[in-house]
Design goal:
Blueprint lengths: L15 H4 L55 E2 L5 E3 L7 E2 L13 H5 L7 H5 L6 H8 L5 H9 L2 H10 L11 H15 L6 H8 L5 H10 L19 E2 L24 H4 L8 E2 L21 H9 L1 H7 L24 H9 L10 H12 L25
Antiparallel strand pairs: 1-2, 2-3, 4-5
Helix pairs in contact: 9-14, 11-12, 11-14
Amino acid sequence: MLFYDKILSGNRNISCGTCHHHDLGGSDGLSLGIGEGGTGLGADRTPGDGPDRIRKRIPRNAPALWNLGHKDVRVLFHDGRLEMSDIYGNDYDSPAEEWLPQGLETILAAQALFPMTSQFEMAGNVGENEIAGAVKDRIDRAWPIIAKRVRTISDYGEMFVAAFDHIERPEDVTIVEIGNALAAFIGTEWTNYDSPYDAFLTDGTPLPEAAERGRQLFFGEARCVQCHNGPLLSDQEFHAMALPAFGPGRTRIWDPIPRDVGRMGATDDLEDAYRFRTPSLRNVALTAPYGHNGAYANLRDMVHHMADPLRMRADWTPEKAALPEVPWVQEIDFVIQTDTLEMERQAAFLDVRPVPLSEAQVDDIVAFLESLTGETALMRPLGRPKSVPSGLPVD
């Protein structure tokens, strides 16, 4: 219920489920999302109007949720700015640093707290609500406000008392229990390991011929396995793949250029420039668009890019993305591409060598990737609730 309840957002107008919806494979179907201020879902989501309209696109693609509860997951977000660490004495290296509260049971529980504090995702703009104002003061000052909102709704208060042994009364509920509850839902709801490829691994059930050829390419001459390995088909490391640049960028106070420097934004290490976390490939056919900025709405195009990044980067056009029309922000959607030096820098950071693939081989790799789709992927155990305790509308 919390996942779909807009009570967690500053202006009570967007939920976690808005951008990670059951009907959209746990994502939003957009290259760069329309966050706080928008209405609707997926390709039909509109950016609002008047003073409440969105001020910019979400800088990065909404990541898929599949299998994030897996014990091997140790780093989250496209730039890895949340990872398991003892650096601050609270189990995590995160944007909240020492202000992240103790007691979050998993890295997924920690991750669940941050969209609530993001201006363009869920918090809203300063002056619009008390959560946005609190975040402006310090990131952790919004969480007690959100927790109070939740626990003072009688149904939520009662459910928390019933669900958590250490919660004896609603007044005891904090953002920690909210994060742990969200993580318990996300980590189980999107667990899925019943794909044709799983059947191949567990009992030797043959893959379709094209998918088998693709599997051999994936683990062989196409070299996909160099980064996409392990049970989640991700090494959870960071690699520069020269994806086409567009959108508002992940700007910083001292780096206002509308670009996204990836992992370097979290580490301030030049060696990490333009590197992004390797995504898991399970159910990848359900989670278009692809790349940290959703540069490709088509899985086949993404395979082509991974095989020959610089050629595909040079040939890329905006039509390959899935960007809803937002007239008042479109003038900066592609402005970064006019910065010749920045484009040269991004193209120079590349961690792979081109792999020559025929069109037939690309088809086979796509067939293998489609074999990673679970038989029950679209039949989630709990699904979307029809209503939530706050009484706010459910997307």
